[in-house]
Amino acid sequence: MTKMLASVTGGEEAEIAISAGADIIDLKDPKAGALGAVATETVRHTVAAVAGRRLTSAVCGDLPMQPETIRARVEEIAATGVDYVKIGFFPSENVAACSEILQPISKKKRLIAVLFADLAPDFELLSRFAADGFHGVMVDTADKAKGRLLDHLPPARIPAFVDRARGLGLAVGLSGSLEAPDIPRLLPFAPDFLGFRGALCGEGSRTRSIDAEAVKQIRALIPEEQRAGRASSVDYRLLAARGYAPGGADSALGTDKIFVREFVLPVEIGAYSFEHGHTQKVRFDVTAEVLRVTSHPEDMRHIVSYDLIMDGIRMIVARGHVQLSEALAEQVAAHVLEDPRVVRVTVRVEKLELGPAGVGVEIERKRAKQQPSALHARHDHGKKGVIS
Length: 388
What we know:
Oligomer: single chain
Helix content: 25-40%
Order of helices and strands: EHEHEHEHHEHEHHEHEHHEEHHEEH
Distance between the termini: 14 Å
CATH superfamily of the largest domain: Aldolase class I
């Protein structure tokens, strides 16, 4: 299950986050940069106050890529008793050396390497982090004024990152000015945790204090594991965002239709030799009939987002050449039907550059029986959890 990481500035905010259900309490000073560090004593006191009720993590600060500087700071934070130490790796020729010098510490403390989606991250470094004993890797954003994670790392690129990290035995985290609508788009990739700060501050800036109601709203969008001594708080309607559900939505509430129309992408498609080696414009029109989960939808918990359709099309197109329009339409339909709330889908695929008229195919597919999500199963295979 994906965990919710809440970045807090100290003990007071930690209590708010714990009360609202956050899984990981992350110490950070948002006024001091993307990975701005709080005082070491604040980390120590907060860890003591949390007293094992939640996992804890702390950032080391926006440090220069100098191996000895990095090592000293990581040792300092590790000594506070925090469960995870997060280290930012900014573009530098010294990145490998900064990772390697942490090998002795990684044998005693779980280290998380942080790369930045808006700084052209080098995912070849994942093998370096794994070799040096890191527990996990996460992607964040360095400049919070220049967009969210998905503005810099689109959904089509996320599976390759997640699969590679998992293949190396690394836990995976995603963060970077995430907002509520991003959650159902990211949950299908089954990251080990999603990180939040600004979204926890309500309508205010990420530098303001977190708001209990805002934390609860984010928590409610992430299916929650049962903790010892508590009744299960899993909302199975939300698990549909991960591609599975025990009984589906209530058909008595009827259905709605969501659609994507005239969505045009460059696609490598075609069976003729002249269609290989380049892209051509393809238009997608998709309509999905969706079981309702409430008579009064109010937020992202209650809907299937059209973003999931567009994200899926982008991911399918990114896989490479497709011979037939029919095959492409079938793949899109199968992706949309992975969500158990979808009972029927119509997909139209139209090639726009093969003459004076568009040509293509339109298919309609219905849900046969409950199937586990192929995307979810692929990303859960061999997964290394955050807790170990």
